[in-house]
Amino acid sequence: MTEALLYKQDEGVVTLTINRPEERNALSDDIIFNAFLEAADRINTDNAVRCVILTGAGRAFSAGGNVKHMRDKEGMFAGSPTELRQSYRQGIQKIPLAFYNLEVPTIAAVNGAAVGAGFDLACMCDIRIAGASARFAESFVRLGIIPGDGGAWFLPRTISRSRAAEMTFTGEMIDAETALEWGLVSRVVADDELMASARDLARRIAVNPPHSLRMAKKLLREGEHMRLDSLLEMSAAFQALSHHTKDHGEAIDAFFEKREGKFKGE
To answer: 77 with 24: CB under 8 angstroms?
Structure first.
């Protein structure tokens, strides 16, 4: 059986590739859900990982839920309302929790369509880069359903509430240039330069001390819901830890010696 999610590590950078091009990288069964959970656990327990790139095989990033399965009431869409609720809670809803709790920075390299749950998946990443052919849609309403995988939480935090409401209530597709204008993506590049651009950015992130990266990301996450005084207290604790790492000493030496630092996560 073809692996649903490819995991490739190059030094400190992991590239995750949703590998279902024949289904436009649909997200509709336990195989892909469990693959994401296993990858997240592997990343969080491997201190050598400093950055993650997420992309899709073929011509689409991810088309989201399998509409044929919805029509036929099969797989995660089968059963009574109570059973469906449990299917969401025990299935696809584990992905946003796993991605939110990834300790290292994440980059979505969006190739082609990112629709529905696939769009929400891109919004779960810290940074998004789009190929010129990328398209984005919070399309649930057009199928008579709602964002069931956390999109209503991620999207307003990614773009303005007004833009998030527009995308959610119309279900309409936007192109890469509109996504750039709205702040949904950091940049738009030629399709054939997408992965090279994502890897370049990942390397620029990964050269930094890994403990600092993980703690900085934790502060950004906590800052989304924490009071300022609480965040400052947490920042003081993290800063005290940072000052006593070997990597901090190496960074100071490298600064004065005008060279690149060599960081080991110590």
So the answer is: no
